[in-house]
Amino acid sequence: MSLKIAFLSSDAPVALSARDALSARYGNVDPAEAEVIVALGGDGFMLRTLHATQDLAAPVYGMNRGTIGFLMNEYHETDLLARLEQAKEEVIHPLSMRAMDRKGVMHRALAINEVSLLRAGPQAARLQISIDGKVRLPELVCDGALVSTPAGSTAYNYSAHGPILPIGAQVLALTAIAAFRPRRWQGALLPLSAAVRFDVLEAEKRPVMADADSISFEDIDWVEIRLDPTVSHSILFDPGHGLEERLISEQFT
Questions:
Q1: Runs of H (alpha helix) within 35-150
Q2: Is 212 annotated as a binding residue?
Q3: Fewer beta carbons under 10 A from the terminal one: N or C of the chain?
Q4: pTM to 2 decimals?
Q5: What is the pLDDT of residues 76-126, one digit of tens each?
Q6: What are the catalytic residues (predicted)?
Q7: Contact of 125 with 213, CB cutoff 8 Å
Q8: Statement: residue 169 has pLDDT above 90
Q9: What is d(CA 234, CA 59) in angstroms, rounded to the nearest whole number?
Q10: 78 is in an annotated binding site
Q11: Which residues contact 37 (CB under 8 A, 6 or more apart)?
Q12: Beta-bridge partner residues of 142
């Protein structure tokens, strides 16, 4: 088996060392020419790689040279070609975010894991939440709120006590972050087709930032979020270790 592989790595010394070793063993081509892209790092680097290569046809296979590695496979140097041949492909779609700041500037970004709104000052944020144009929650006083995909549901969403979503679930998670009022409101499950809008109340007094997979925008007035089915990310996993298995296993650890 012969494959054109592009090896990409984070700046961590262990990831750089792995890239050099793998490149020497298997060769290394430009991502635009690759049949497979191998990302070496942690989940953060995997997300950056997926965003950076979304217009390329090659799927991405991650190997963990970072910390958590939920989206990554185990690192082994010697049997890579056999693993790539046996790997299973999963296709996921990102969230699309439009965020208007208080100066009237529109910001756009895609998020594979989640879009979050976070208070940017000492006072709690006040958010109004609308779903498909209908106000569902006139006021949420909180540290923030987020919308998560199934693929991202074990990340920030889970830390904020949101639900873990099976990869095949046709829903998004809307999760409150440290809700003060309504105090017991934890969030909602929404259909994949839902359009979610957050309006920031008292934005000058209670500033809010918006974040899409660590791409942040400050002093936000409102945010709209929906799944973008026109953008696809192809991820390769070792057999028996795909996203569905990982999402189930995470609930029993």
A1: 43-52, 80-86
A2: no
A3: C
A4: 0.91
A5: 999 999 999 999 999 999 999 999 999 999 999 999 999 999 999 999 999
A6: 43 (proton acceptor)
A7: no
A8: no
A9: 5
A10: no
A11: 5, 6, 8, 31, 49, 53, 56, 58, 59, 60, 61
A12: 125
Domain boundaries, the chain: 5-92+232-250, 95-227
Structure tokens at 184: 């017991």
Please give the Cα distance from 32 to 50 (Å, whole number): 13
Catalytic, 30? Answer no
Domain 5-92+232-250 in CATH 3.20.10.10? The answer is no
Indicate the burial class of 22 (C-beta count within 10 angstroms; 0-12, 13-18, 19 or more): buried
Residue 31 is classified by DSSP as G
Reported as a single tens digit per residue, the pLDDT across 200-227 is 999 999 999 999 999 999 999 999 999 9
**Could you say which of 11, 20, 30, 43 is catalytic?**
43
Is residue 67 within 8 A of residue 42, CB to CB? The reply is yes
75 marked among binding-site residues: no
What are the phi and psi torsion angles at 14 (to 5°)?
Answer: -70, -35
Beta bridge partners of 111: 95
Comparison of pLDDT for 148 and 166, the residue scoring more: 148
Q: Is 114 annotated as a binding residue?
A: yes
Tell me the CATH class for 95-227.
Answer: mainly beta
The pLDDT > 90 percentage for the chain reads: 88
- d(C-alpha 131, C-alpha 39), whole Å: 36
Annotation-wise, does 156 bind a ligand? yes
CA distance 116 to 202: 18
